[in-house]
Amino acid sequence: MMHDPWFNLRDFTQARIAQGRVGSGIPSQALLDFQIAHAAARDAVHQAWDMDDFARQVKSLNLHPLCLRTSVNNRVEYLQRPDKGRCLHAESRQVLLASAHPEVDVLLIFSNGLSSTAIHSHGFALLKAIYTVFQESAFSLGPICLLPDARVAVADEIGALLNARLTIMIIGERPGLSAADSLGAYLTLKPRVGNTDAERNCLSNIRPPEGLSYTLAASKLCYLANAALQCGYSGVALKDGMHIPIMHSFTLE
User: Fold this and answer.
1) DSSP 114
2) How does pLDDT run across 12-34, given as a tens digit for each residue?
3) What angle do CA 210, 216, 193 make, to 5 degrees?
4) Among 70, 50, 44, which residue's Cα sits nearest to residue 147?
5) Residue 137: count of CB within 10 angstroms of its CB
6) Taking the CA atoms of the chain, what radius of gyration do you get in angstroms?
7) What's the CA gap between 59 and 112, in Å, rounded?
8) Whole-prediction pTM
9) Do 238 and 228 touch, CB atoms closer than 8 A?
10) What's the rounded Cα separation, in Å, for the pair 171 and 118?
11) Tens digits of residue pLDDT in 204-245
């Protein structure tokens, strides 16, 4: 095996660097690590989300969970038809149309998205952190919307029907070979069907201890929500002016 001068840098990243080699191949341990990571990524995509258990946890915070569904019929269809994950099922749409919900500042929406592992591992802890920070800022919150097999854009339809000024979609991110449990958060002001991705702000890689901490993610979402409501826009026009030392994100939990 050859000495790789990059080997010491592996202490600072989960990226597959300095794997070494044996002849023309890679060492057995590196191969096994790759296969384990690949299996974890596949499991994250295909396993189901226990949404009912998540709803019970939401109730433990004295919050109201609202269980919805998209037009997707099963996980295979979700993967093959992204357009169906962006639309509410007709029954869920009728439920929201029938509700006379007063205007709220922020609507939180949770979905397993492409990684059920992420929502299982970090979803409820992130909700608690967001709830704590947003309460301190006196934001009015709508019901906590839960729906499996969703894409980010479905938040626009839900937000418009529930009369929300701003939506935050918490969703499992596409798993990779270095992270299968990462959550993303997408913030959109004035949700309505037809919004583009350019009108959203995104926080990615929420997965302590390796990624963004719950506390820092909640604080950044609160900062962006305040800024969006004051400026009247979100997305590429809204810049993140919240300055926090990078290493601080690994010490807040």
Assistant:
1) T
2) 888 888 888 888 898 999 999 99
3) 100
4) 70
5) 12
6) 20
7) 19
8) 0.90
9) yes
10) 8
11) 999 999 899 999 999 999 999 999 999 999 999 998 888 776
